[in-house]
Structure formats: C-alpha cells, structure tokens
Sequence to fold (268 residues):
Amino acid sequence: MASRPLISAFLLLLLIGSVIHSSAAFHPIIRLPTERETATDSSSHGDDDDDGGLYCASWHLASEINNAGGWTQIPSRCLSYVKYYMTGKRYESDCEVIGNFSLAFASTVEMAPDGKDAWVFDIDEALLTNLPYYMDHGFGSEVFNESCWDEWVASAKAPAIPSSLKLYNALKQMGFKIFVLTGRSEHQRQDTSKNLELAGYTDWEGLILRGASDGGIPATVYKSERRSVLLNGGYRIHGSSGDQWSDLLGFAVAKRSFKLPNPMYYIG
Ligand SMILES: *[C@@H]1O[C@H](CO)[C@@H](O)[C@H](O)[C@H]1NC(C)=O
Ligand SMILES: *[C@@H]1O[C@H](CO)[C@@H](O)[C@H](O)[C@H]1NC(C)=O
Fold:
C-alpha cells in the first residue's frame, strides 16, 4: 500500500502537469495543423510529392464551383487524386448528400393538380456513371476520343448512380414529371434509353437529345432552349440535376439547381 507522502508527491505532479497543459491551451498564437497532421486517406493518395493531394483537393473544389473555368484534361499530377476520389467512398457519399438535399427541397414543393411540376436530369455523371469507361481511359487525363466514347454509349453498360436512382424514383412517386435532357445525340436515342432502363430508370416524361440542328450550339444554350420549350408547354421546372454548370445555367433555369461532382471532364 502506498504511503501518504508518495500519494502527495503524485498529486503534486498531476497538478504541475495540468498547469503546464492549460498554459499550453492559452497560447496566444493559433497554430494551424501541419499538412501531415490533417492528411486524410484521400490527400495521401493525391500524388507522389507531399502537397499533391492538397493541391488536387483545392483544384477539385475550384473546378466544381466553376472557379477553374474550362479545361480539357485533369492536371496530370492529379491523376491518382481523381482516381481515388472516384473509386473510393467519397464520390458516392458526395452524391448521396446532394441527393438528400435535392429530396429535402422537393418535399417542400407544393404540387399542383395539373401534372406540370417537373424535374430535369442530365444523364452522364448525373443519372448514369461512366466510371467503367473512365477507368479504362485515365480518369480524364486522356484527350477525349469521340469514337471510343461512342462505342461505350452503344454498349449501354453505364450503371446508375445509386443516390440518383433513389432520388429519381422518389420524385416520380411524389408526382414530378421527369425530363431527361442530355448532350448525347439523337442518333444515340435507342442505346441511351436502353441503358437508362437497364440501370433502373423508367417512366420519364421526355428524353431530349441533341438534334442535327443543335450541332455546334454550346451546351448551356442548347439546354436552356430546351428548358424554355418545357416552360412554354406550361411546366414548372422546380429542380435540375447535372454534373456540369452548362446543365444548370443559362436561361429558363430551374428554381433549384443541384450540381453533382465530376472531376473527370468539363463541358462548357
Ligand atoms: C441520406 O438520407 C438517408 C435517408 O434519410 C439517410 O439514411 C442517409 O444517411 C443520408 N445520407 C447522407 C450521406 O447523409
Ligand atoms: C480514338 O480511339 C480509336 C479506337 O476506338 C483509335 O483507333 C483512334 O486512333 C483514337 N484517336 C485518337 C486521336 O487517339
């Protein structure tokens, strides 16, 4: 059994320890954690150099919120960042959070009995994920190859983004009319609707593709014009979901737009 002096000495040590500890807590200079301390799994998968992950996470954010402007390929140093983001749990989680916000907004909409309450979805990286294609094509680090891409579209093998399928079905059940508005071409209609159905999407009100006359029109203009047609047809576009700002901006915009993540390619 410990003697009284020993216990007192122990208590004194504890006291000194807590004084040192609390004086450290009152240090006037705010110390930012070092990069290594904050390094998460994703940032450590960013690149070979130490700040690659940090840079790529910042580049990704700038790109998602449209600060980066147009780009044709991901920065080459960000290949492993994008690969890790897309194939790890983060992409799925980001999509799910957006799907939940979308649904929360949708449930505030007062549906009219005229059946004209609408929601617009883009397809690629919005309803469907082309991750299997991009896994074979460097996650956006390769220059876009149209003939390869067309082969992939014809295969009709793109899976659904699970949270988008959930949102789609919930909106349908709530009575929204769903319009699918894509930059894919009219000649890809059959393969596209086949792919949507295989992935679980059914009962859309309209599937709108780029016609021959939409040839050289920028995506923002083409999509705005098609949304205008819907508005002129008496539809109220409450929500719009897309992975590109060109899916969402322009005119005849939805009351709420939901930007899904896509660090692999940019469409202006
Ligand atoms: C999204 O909502 C569902 C249903 O309310 C919930 O189970 C899930 O945890 C939410 N997901 C996220 C990432 O918040
Ligand atoms: C695009 O891919 C096809 C194969 O699908 C290939 O034959 C062609 O050379 C590629 N084009 C370029 C510019 O890399």
Residues 34-87 form one domain. The pocket of 2-acetamido-2-deoxy-beta-D-glucopyranose (ligand 2) is lined by residues 145, 147-148 (CB under 6 Å). The chain is about 45% helix and 10% strand. Confidence is low (pLDDT under 50) at residues 5-44.
